[in-house]
């Protein structure tokens, strides 16, 4: 009996320990985000001291600093923070739901679908930001629906879905290139962002829809986190644990497409963030609980970190998407090789 | 007993995408007993179990629990009474044994509730019962097939349902582990009175461990009852199209099916 109690304690202890690890790592990621946000405000052509930055943010008018910080650096930082978070969360949801790290909005072409719609609105129709955002969401949802219809065969196969997604992505990216080549000289600077994603020229007015969508959808998705964990055990197990699987899947897909489409409409498709964030979060935190929040934080960290590198590490300034692309591509190759060996492709 | 439920299939017709597999089955699961569904490959035994577990929606008729169709219950409420262990559940990457067993507590938890004392106790009890406490903090990938199956059953136990359905829980396991799993399920039935319904491939283990047998052929129920009463060479011929003799099992006195093939038959016996 005594022995039993000792053994039991060690089960609960282990479970609590893993929960504490989750809290610890998530806090650490949050602190790191705050530090990187600080870096985004402090660093630039002129490096301002912390007190100047804070006074400027509080509304004090300090010559020079005011423009650099409030008009350039702050919108850039907020855009990177929210877009990175959105990419991370949406990527994690797709990867977990489809139980495959390759199944993320980036590789499946959902971000490309949003990009095509946004580029078309900007370059051809010259519409307002609101219309661009709505078009991006519609473009993302249409891509998901087309992909679903094409990959429906006798039975659902994740491999088929991924291959169709990669094909769609290539096709949609070709459309983006075509639209950019046809665009007027003065639009090219704006349009180029759609090739790899960039935080250049972020404006406060343009980031508002993104903030709104992230703030609205994040609590919904966090509340569904536990159910998503059950879905991971397979359709049958999830059903027997009391999950309405069809309803859950539609809610998750629509919410994830919404946040990633708006993020894409704001920054362009920042390469590989939605692909990298989930696996990194899982590696850091473990699989004991839902990792939606850690994945979002990893996404934000990645974008902010990559943007700082892109701005200051080289002689030339690179857009953030080039840096995340450099980070993500080797991981993609590694993953493909590993999955091929295990026969999962 | 408080955990008795009237669990029935009523004029049940079901299948996949317009292909009807179950052609009108009426049955009632004996309460607090172990029932085994037997039948040849493609007979519909697994489809029957899946329909009773709400994984397949019946095209006609109903599966009812205490007089109410199972799809009329709120999903979580049903999941506290009726559990299922599918044939091939998916193991999430990098999960530990205790955390996986803990997922069985989902139907007992609300949206924002953390882990209650009952939740932890249920996990401990289930793991002790399945004798996997020692692996609690191991990654599930480190376990053998037999150990893994015990983990899945522990997860279903942590769900604390009064009825547990299992789809071929012993397939892919060595004979030693098959017997071990069936012994553990019998323990479960005797200790808590859990009603168990399972599909098994091995007819002799079915005959030994079942209190009640349902024999299915071409989507119809053709016989049911105690193994000693229904399991005859005629039934085996009808259900499996196999010539055999049935003798008493020297260990348990339950029916033991000895197949007759074309070869290796003693002279004069054919």
Automatic annotation (TrEMBL), chain A:
This is Iron chelate uptake ABC transporter family permease subunit. It comes from the Bacteria. The keyword Metal-binding does not apply. Belongs to the binding-protein-dependent transport system permease family. FecCD subfamily. The keyword Cell inner membrane does not apply. It comes from Ureibacillus galli. CDD domains: TM_ABC_iron-siderophores_like (cd06550). It is a multi-pass membrane protein.
TrEMBL record, chain B:
One of its GO terms (molecular function) is ATP binding. It comes from the Bacteria. The keyword Cell division does not apply. InterPro entries: AAA+_ATPase, ABC_transporter-like_ATP-bd, ABC_transporter-like_CS, P-loop_NTPase, Siderophore_ABC-ATPase. Coiled coil: none annotated. Pfam families: ABC_tran. PROSITE patterns: ABC_TRANSPORTER_1 (PS00211), ABC_TRANSPORTER_2 (PS50893). CDD domains: ABC_Iron-Siderophores_B12_Hemin. Keywords: ATP-binding, Cell membrane, Ion transport, Iron, Iron transport, Membrane, Nucleotide-binding, Transport. It is found in: Cell membrane. Residues 7-243 form the ABC transporter domain. It is a peripheral membrane protein. This is ABC transporter ATP-binding protein. The lineage of its organism: Bacteria, Bacillati, Bacillota, Bacilli, Bacillales.
